[in-house]
Amino acid sequence: MHEEHLRQVEAQLDYLAPFLAQLPPGEKLTRWQAMRVKDECLSDFKQRLIDKANLIQARFEKETQELQKKQQWYQENQVTLTAEDEDWYLSYCSQAMFRIRILEQRLNRHKELAPLKYLALEEKLHKDPRLVEFLKVFV
């Protein structure tokens, strides 16, 4: 239900508004401007996809490093741990592994869907009524 809501919100967003706002108001769009708007929009979207992948990757690496530190701590202190400390450690490891798996799944899903999202935006731009007459390919 949440994903459906996000799709509806995305459909209502004017993805060209920030780029068209940079043009002089009231002036008719030229072919060159339309191409530039399309390219800037795609470039910005691509950068956001890259930033999202980098963020997920950074979180994944942080979780992995923290788990490795705890494992190192456990190896060094294993002999002197109380049962309560050992239970805490096992619980921490279980939770950390869960978070790591989730982040790995998110990253893989993002890598899988990012090219499709990019192509979908490219198609939307080619069909956008404000750009369509300028982006026609003459054969």
From TrEMBL:
Top-level taxon of the source organism: Eukaryota
GO biological process: flagellated sperm motility
One of the Pfam families matching this protein, by short name: DRC7_C
GO cellular component term, pick one: motile cilium
Domain Dynein regulatory complex subunit 7 C-terminal: 27-134
Name the record gives this protein: Dynein regulatory complex subunit 7-like
Organism: Leptonychotes weddellii (Weddell seal)
